[in-house]
Design a protein that fits this description.
Number of helices: 11
Structural class: mainly alpha
Length: 322
């Protein structure tokens, strides 16, 4: 519309041009960032959440204390071996798929929030191929720590081949798709609102503290899908015990029958902690690292063709005059 600059094109950044559609740098950044996340607070939150998802009669602090009684501080890093393999592989897949999808959608003029949701969902689904066996082994290590990893792998394979490593696969797919769609989407939405509210310009640059704040809020809101996680833990625990595992709906129905609806939300406290931690690394941290690499012109900057009409540029002076 004439005289209305709200839908004007976003200025192209003065950086290296012709950025690749799927930058290979994400194949290196993804494993490094995800392994750093898991090796620090990621594993303790994962172990705590997994125990509560399985032993749903335990309270939050009771589960924490029982983990400590099992093996002291080391017990919070049970299953670290398969977790590092999982983190390295899923981090590579997530970053490559998520960032590639996001960059291409932004080039096509899709707004940052919608692009974040779609990119997160795509990256999350792509992770499932490697996450199934790894989360299965980690769940077994947490809930039955006396079995050596090699024996668990051998017994599982003997029970049903490769397929036996994927109990709860549907729940994992739902969890991962909604996990990263929500973490990326909510974080981008909060970032956009913070830019407008704090700086009056959707194209403003947030401070690092503001970026972290957006990640904390986004990671917390993304935990709405916790029932999928509880279903995944229950299905994989049954699989580790050699028991038959039904579909995702069947598993959820059985949990509600035994523990009520509240059983689907057991472990929500450590899950929120894990959601925040993973979002700060894989969404906020990844963005800050790539921004720094782009500023140093070590990697190219994807061109954003147009601003989304759903997220118009706000001119505080213009609004003030009207």
């Amino acid at each position: 519309r004439a005289g209305d600059d709200r839908y004007a094109q976003t200025p192209k950044p003065p950086s290296p041009k012709n950025a690749p559609a799927m930058p290979s740098v994400d194949l290196f950044l993804g494993p490094l960032i995800q392994c750093a996340e898991a090796a620090t607070l990621g594993m303790p939150f994962e172990v705590w959440k997994t125990r509560m998802g399985r032993f749903r009669q335990e309270g939050t602090l009771e589960a924490f204390a029982n983990i400590y009684k099992q093996g002291g501080v080391k017990a919070f890093w049970a299953g670290t071996g398969p977790k590092m393999i999982e983190s390295g592989s899923k981090g590579m897949i997530l970053m490559y798929a998520k960032e590639g999808i996001n960059d291409n959608l932004r080039r096509a003029g899709v707004g940052p929030t919608l692009a974040g949701v779609l990119a997160g969902a795509g990256g999350g689904i792509a992770q499932v191929s490697v996450m199934g066996p790894c989360t299965y082994l980690v769940t077994g290590a947490v809930n039955n720590p006396g079995v050596p990893l090699t024996r668990r792998i051998a017994e599982t394979y003997a029970r049903g081949g490769l397929k036996a490593f994927y109990p709860g696969g549907t729940a994992i797919a739902f969890r991962q798709a909604t996990n990263w769609a929500s973490r990326q989407g909510f974080t981008e939405f909060i970032r956009h609102r913070m830019k407008v509210a704090l700086h009056g310009d959707q194209n403003a640059r947030l401070t690092k503290a503001q970026e972290v704040g957006a990640g904390v809020i986004g990671g917390t809101l993304a935990c709405w899908n916790h029932p999928f996680e509880v279903a995944r833990i229950e299905a994989q625990t049954l699989g580790n015990m050699g028991k038959p595992v039904g579909g995702m709906v069947t598993v959820m129905r059985d949990i509600v029958r035994v523990d009520g609806v509240g059983g689907l939300f057991r472990g929500i406290v450590p899950r929120v902690g894990l959601g925040i931690w993973q979002t700060l690394f894989m969404v906020t941290g990844a963005k800050l690292i790539k921004d720094e690499l782009q500023k140093r012109e070590w990697i190219a900057v994807p061109e954003v063709q147009v601003a989304s009409p759903h997220e118009p540029k706000i001119d505080p002076k213009k609004n003030k005059d009207q």
